[in-house]
């Protein structure tokens, strides 16, 4: 598979070969779903908590006598059906994280890359570099390229400071180092943009 290499000024800089082992795999929605669920589960704090009947502050004294009041028989006021009472089967502090093997995570990432390539939403950028740190200039360049919703993966050892500062204020456009490539961020944006350095590093890492 070959793709054109694009520059920020919308000109082309030849073509580049893509590895079929990474960018031509069949799209497996089950793997993508597992990877996304795994990522989102890791983000959950798990600090949600409600008080059970035994944790409510209050007396356990019988509220009133058993018979003759016309009310339901009530042992105390901390039961779950009373206002201010405990919650039955409510959320407790827990860890939502679950295991996903490295083999599955690696295959899911390759599948996500293949899905973008198959749908025509993969682009190769010459380099993530700009002469100015002004957001307006970069936003105009990305708009001409049609990258209004894009994830840019940069493989340079040292990120270009001007590009990093300019892109951070553009809504819908994210910049990550190639080491941070993940299924969720790839799928949440319409276009995946890889610099040539990022492409080389990803192919070396995922083969």
Overview of the molecule:
- With 207 residues, this protein is of the alpha/beta class.
- The protein folds into two domains: 2-45 and 97-206, Ribosomal Protein L4, Chain: A, CATH 3.40.1370; 50-90, no CATH class.
- Helix content is 34%, strand content 14%.
- The protein is built from seven helices and six strands.
- The protein has helices spanning 20-23, 29-43, 102-118, 135-145, 161-167, 183-188, 196-206; strands at 2-6, 12-17, 122-125, 150-154, 173-177, 191-195.
- Strands 2-1-3-6-4-5 form a six-stranded mixed beta sheet.
- It is elongated and about 90 Å long.
- The mean pLDDT is 94.
Short description:
The protein is of the alpha/beta class.
Counting DSSP E segments of at least 2 residues, the number of strands comes to 6
Supply the number of structural domains.
2
CATH architecture of the largest domain: 3-Layer(aba) Sandwich
Counting helices, strands and paired strands, the structural category is alpha/beta
What shape does the CA trace take? elongated
What is the multimeric organization of the chains shown? Answer: single chain
Helices, by number, come to 7
What is the name of the CATH topology of the largest domain? Ribosomal Protein L4, Chain: A
H and E string = EEHHHEHEHEHEH
CATH class membership of the largest domain? Alpha Beta
Instruction: Report Rg.
Output: 27 Å
Tell me the span between the first and last alpha carbons: 16 Å
Q: Spatial order of the strands in the main sheet?
A: 2-1-3-6-4-5
- Binned, the helix content reads 25-40%
Largest sheet: 6 strands, mixed
Quick one: CATH superfamily of the largest domain? Answer: Ribosomal protein L4/L1
Strand residues, percent? 5-15%
Q: What is the average of the pLDDT values?
A: 94
Show unreliable segments.
none
